[in-house]
Amino acid sequence: MSTHAHAARTARAPVQQAALVVGAVFLLVGVLGFIPGVTTNYDTMEFAAHHSEARLFGVFQVSILHNLVHLAFGVAGLALSRTAAQARLYLLAGGAIYLVLWLYGVIIDLDSAANFVPVNTADNWLHLVLGLGMIALGALLTRRHDTTRTTV
User: Fold this and answer.
1) Pairing mode, if any, of strands 55-56 and 60-61?
2) Does 124 have pLDDT greater than 90?
């Protein structure tokens, strides 16, 4: 097999590259959530409760559970970037999950026990952007272009 043929066969589709990058970012954010200094008020971090005052970059409320979710999404992105179909599924389903998490954060009382993840207003906005962005990447990077049709 020629080098060109091998490169063409192993080249990642844009949707796979997007899933790989998104997964890597989630993995990085999950790790950073466990680093004191990057996460302020680190000593107040709890496993899962709205009382956690730990803030990633001093802005986004995090807990051990929240960081573990980021790590899981990161691993899933890396694993599912292997094929275009799986990468598309990761981006679309992951985006939908983040939209549900955004909706959850908007509906619940952030100071109640229902906020077990926990999330704050900054998290809610980020979850909305992540959800819409992941769905857009999954949909737009897999659109089929009909190259056989010509316009007259």
Assistant:
1) antiparallel
2) yes
Q: Which two tokens stand for residue 33?
A: 């959530």
| pTM, two decimal places | 0.84
Helices 14-32, 64-80: axis angle to 10 degrees equals 160
- Contact predicate 98/131, CB 8 Å: yes
Q: Where does the pLDDT of residue 100 fall: very low under 50, low under 70, confident under 90, or very high at 90 and above?
A: very high
Residues 6+ apart with CB under 8 A from 139: 92
Q: Phi-psi bin for 77: left (phi > 0), alpha (psi -120 to 50), beta?
A: alpha
d(CA 65, CA 51): 13
Q: Which residue has the tokens 């709890």?
A: 46
CB atoms within 10 A of CB 116: 17
3-class secondary structure per residue, the chain: CCHHHHHHHHCCCHHHHHHHHHHHHHHHHHHHCCCECCEECHHHCCCCCCCCCCEECCCEECCHHHHHHHHHHHHHHHHHCCCHHHHHHHHHHHHHHHHHHHHHHHHCCCCCCCCCCCCCHHHHHHHHHHHHHHHHHHHHCCCCCCCCCCCC
